[in-house]
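Budget justification, computational time. The allocation requested in the original proposal was used primarily to generate structure tokens for proteins on the priority list. As evidence of use, we reproduce two of the resulting records. The first is shown immediately below.
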Amino acid sequence: MAQSGSESTRTYSRSSTGVGGGSTRRSLSSMSTTPLSLQHAINIDGNKPAVIIEIGAQLTKIGFAGEFSPRNIIRTEYMDEALIVQRDLFNGVDETKKSSLSRLFHFFKHIYFTHLLTVPRERRVVIIESLLTPSHIRRAITVVVLEMLEAPSILFAPSHLMATFPFNTNTALVFDLGWTEACAMPIAEGITMLSQWEAVGKGGKAVTKRLKELLEKDGIVEDLDGSRRPLSQGDWHVIDQAKLLEDILVRGVFVTRMSRADAIRIGEKPDPQPSEMILPMGTEMLVVPGHVRELAAEVLFDSSSEDEPGLHEMIHNIVARCPLDLRKKLFSRLLVVGGLAHMPGLLPRLKAEIVRLGETRQLKTTDSVGFYMLEKCRMESWMSWLGGSMFGCLSDTLTHRSLTKEDWMENRRPD
């Protein structure tokens, strides 16, 4: 069953793993979403489309307002004049010392002149950010964009709120599975419930760490003649240099069914076994056993630590702190975004774990667990960017909400 509507992007599923419908139209997101009409909306006041940038811990999405996907997805790093890769862009950044802003300036300059091929002073800027971003980083970005690059204005938009725009909904539990952490933020009637958010260190970094542990134990190297040997410590230099762990995480790791996970947890080896994955590693081949691909993501549902609950427990904890009349609605309107959201099997497993935990706690509110999903397309990794692209089309809203260089020089407050 799909929600009716004239806009193609507003059609989303209400299947066993997806929900939709019942949402109230908001002025910020009630717009036509065909390429022609978006371009017309952008140019209605003669301004060029705004630059939309979402800076993540690992990847940065960049493009222009009105586009349905980022023009480029680049690593959040840059190479300095000495050809040294600089990864920690925000370490030691201080907006009062321009010398400390060099890394950030070169990063934004690279975005404008290498990837977007545009002049900063000609376009407004929308930065999609987490609400957990420290204020000193926000101020540093403002100094670079407004003072050093001389953009006309800048606007910081919360990523969890932007993720709701493509679905035209004002109530959802937005679950962002990023690199460093998993962060959940409930939104009710367009209001962000800041007192109820929760974050745990179970993101792509945690899955990669578990993947490395499993490979150290069971990884295999295959030579050109077909002979095989265990993975050794000397092989890790090649693996790290070629970023093979990231390749395995994106292409090979999947979330297994709950029944198989329960069997594996008690020491069984259920059939059939997943197929192994083979990747080139210098002059040899790296063989990733099937059980390594299957077990790496289990760290997301590990409930052994009270300080680091599983994703399903995290959702239950947040909903339990919300008002009674919101709980069932939030369970039925889960919106999973971020780099790990594309992982095969994640949503069915997450739903099964939520329902089972609800049965254990004797809750009836988990009967209608569902997820927002766009039909026939997978945009979870850049859903917040897409919402920012839609938001950037609202020229009047952008004009009134953006921080101009003049206002910044007078108040020095990017908030």
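The second record produced under the same allocation is shown here.
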Amino acid sequence: MVASAEPKVAAVAPEHSWVSKLDLDGFKKEVSDLGKRLEKNQGKEDVDHIKKICLWSNTFAAIGLATMWLPPNPVTVIALSMWTFMRWTTIAHHTGHGGYNRADETKYFNSRGFAAGSLYKRVTEWFDWMLPEAWNIEHNNLHHYRLSEDADPDLVERNLAFTRDLKVPLFCKYAIVGVLMGTWKWFYYAPNTYKELKIAEMRKLGKPVTAEMRPHDAFTLKAFFDNRVLGAKNTIWYPFRDLMKNVMGPYLLIHFLLMPLPCLLLGPAAFMNAVGNLVLADILTNIHGFVVIATNHAGDDMYRFKSGCIPNSGTFYLRQVISSVNFKTGGDWNDVMHGFLNYQIEHHVWPNLSALSLQRGQPEMKVICQRYGVPYVQESIWKRLKKTVDIMVGTATMLDFPEELERKSDLKVWSNEDTSANSAALGQDVKVKEPVAA
């Protein structure tokens, strides 16, 4: 049982009855043992697999770039969209988690420095709206270790509180979500990941980050507008000019202006066609990313938690499963279209495994969950999109995990040191300049 060493509770709600019957120690051992076996067996085949994904991504890039001078068309737009999508969701994502650190002898697919450290590396290895260093803190560290807690920066139910609570007709809320789908990487992800990097820097320098500053609230471009135009009092974690200079500006300038510049040789119309294709591809890749990413941890069958837990404890493994959802799995083409995020349960349980290892481990992980009675949710991505949108507009609510059923010895209170330690393990800890003594 989860609370085997804790006082017994009087009653358990029917929907949570499975928790009180769970052999958490046995579950932990089997999940841990499987992860270790998968990691031990990683090697050249895993690296060859990610290189194949890179080849596919580069092929889409070649098609898109070679045809972007044409009037906007589906072939060019889809090719450019898939190039960006694959580079983020499969290549940068699993590399940033250290999935190839031991297997890749060239050290190219290595979490220590991939796309980080210079604009050149960012442009040539993973170029997107988000700053890689900021993504490493927000996603690889905070989201993965604090999944579905208040400290999870990607907690959909909390982040969409504005829409959930808005006193407007339901169709207006759906319209808001629709706009967000096509814009969320630059509207939400770029500023929010950068916020988490700035908070990590502040904490490392010993600067106060208080509850009154609301550090867990999503920080979007809307915050700048609200403060300047509406007179709101949101905490502004950095100046807008810093966001443009360090995060969004380089992508806006290079991707949408400099990259299509050679098309001017074919005339102004060709250049404008290229810009139009890039803009449409950006909208499409935003929507594609939203559908496979925002849906990973949201729904009325996904759990939320009120406290932190020790990484790789039984409680940690349990939370990764019951707060994550898989989509249809199997086959590289299917998995690429899902960004390999259709293995979200396995990825959260073992974030340091390669994409190929997730394919290998998924059937066994599912059997373990079935054997121990742990809910293993795997549904069509379209069903999960509906459940996610229901959470966003406020017609559904996530499950609260009963605190009385938590194993108290697995719980913990997060500290500043945890963020640095977890990031340092991947070679991704924030680097700040110490203040000069007066």
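A brief technical remark on that second record: Residues 3-7 have pLDDT under 50 and may be disordered.
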